[in-house]
Write a structure and sequence with these properties.
Rossmann fold; 11% strand
Length: 242
């Protein structure tokens, strides 16, 4: 990213929320730089080389839902309708689910205990996934856990997060899958709800790291909006890389 890109993000945040950022311009600049660096740091991992001990410590993979579903680029939802003209937006749900499927299979075969895939999208997304589970989607239905609660937007997924009953009161690693730029938003929502993730070591994984500049720009601006309105922290929840 270059300085002109960062200036666009800076000016937009200041214009949208002058009451919050006008007295925190240095903080705003620092936050933008930190998020850009963070996004560029998310890398793909070769899970075939993960050790048995590492695999045993992974409790679940949490796939953050995106646009469309497992079988379509877009569905009838407010967020999909808003961004249907953006090529970079379509099909992110399928990309994340297929990546989650791949790493699930790689980790599960090295574990002696059950591994779970956590997924809490909107109803149409959940129905599609469960219909395909054990068929075109190789993770079995009984290995997929859908937390209770209505989901409309990404923040809802964080606020409604829960572990499967079989994993309650257990500590270990939680792998979180989304696009690189989107992970930075998730981690800042999670910081505001740290109690939900007590005892868990957070391990973010990017389903795709080659995000378009439009995608990164939209996510960066969104994060700064959420920070200004108190829905997200300016810092991510503590996490560890593989």
């Amino acid at each position: 990213m270059n300085q002109s890109f960062e200036k666009i993000i800076f000016d937009r945040a200041l214009n949208r929320h002058p009451e919050f950022w006008s007295e925190k311009k240095e903080d705003l600049t620092k936050t933008i730089t930190e998020i850009i660096d963070e996004i560029s740091g998310f890398e793909a991992v070769d899970f075939d080389s993960i050790s048995k001990d590492e695999a045993e410590n992974i409790l679940a993979i949490w796939c953050i839902s995106g646009s469309g579903s497992l079988t379509s680029d877009f569905i009838d939802s407010p967020s999909d309708d808003k961004y249907k003209d953006k090529k970079w937006y379509g099909g992110t749900d399928r990309i994340r689910l297929r990546f989650s499927e791949k790493i699930f299979l790689a980790i599960d075969k090295k574990k002696s205990r059950n591994l779970f895939l956590i997924y809490n999208g909107i109803p149409e997304q959940v129905v599609t996934l469960l219909q395909e589970a054990g068929k075109s989607f190789t993770v079995l239905k009984q290995q997929i856990y859908v937390p209770d609660g209505e989901i409309v937007k990404t923040l809802d997924q964080v606020e409604k997060f829960s572990l499967p009953p079989a994993l309650k009161k257990k500590s270990g690693d939680l792998v979180i899958v989304s696009h690189a730029a989107h992970l930075s938003r998730i981690l800042r929502f999670m910081k505001k709800h740290e109690k939900l993730f007590e005892g868990l070591t957070i391990r973010p994984l990017a389903a795709r790291v080659d995000n378009s500049s439009d995608f990164v720009e939209a996510e960066l601006s969104g994060i700064l909006d959420y920070v200004a309105t108190g829905q997200a922290s300016d810092k991510p929840i503590d996490f560890e890389s593989f």
